[in-house]
Amino acid sequence: MKLERQRRFLRVFFYVLGMVLLAFGNATFGLYALFVLVLVLAIVATGVGAALTLDVKLVPNPGDGIVQALADLVQKETGFMKNCFDFGCISVTAILSLSMVGGLVGLGLGTVLAMIGVGRTIAIYHRIVGNRITKLSEVREI
User: Fold this and answer.
1) I need a surface site. Which of 64, 105, 111, 140 has the fewest CB within 10 A?
2) Mind giving me the DSSP string for the chain?
3) What residues have CB less than 8 Å from 82, skipping those under 6 apart?
4) pLDDT tens by residue, 41-99
């Protein structure tokens, strides 16, 4: 039963996605705007997911774990530290790609928006939700 519902959802999802792409496919700007909208939604979902994972003390992915450890070490908020860490990663990427390839490789609009957006989403999430999720999950500090 559950598998059938998933198949139905995927059929509807890909049908709607196909219709949207056909509607915006003729207009390059419209299609680009759609891609940016999907990117923004993905950045918000990533930021909220990272904040939830860190708040309830689940095992985070390595990128979020190192940011949380650095934030705890320097006693700064996680969203700010995420922005600083991502800026450092992008800076290293830019320097290496410029020195080795002669141009920027792998750094586009999506990378820059994700660098700024995920950290800001985490910070906004923490301002809105605060410690309520941590208290609801009954996580104790060691």
Assistant:
1) 140
2) -HHHHHHHHHHHHHHHHHHHHHHHHT-HHHHHHHHHHHHHHHHHHHHHHHHHHHHTT----HHHHHHHHHHHHHT--HHHHHHHHHHHHHHHHHHHHHHHTSS--S--HHHHHHHHHHHHHHHHHHHHHTTHHHHHTT----
3) 50, 64, 67, 71, 118, 119, 122
4) 999 999 999 998 888 877 888 888 899 999 999 999 999 999 999 999 999 999 999 99
Supply 91's token pair: 């800076």
List the domain boundaries for the chain: 41-136
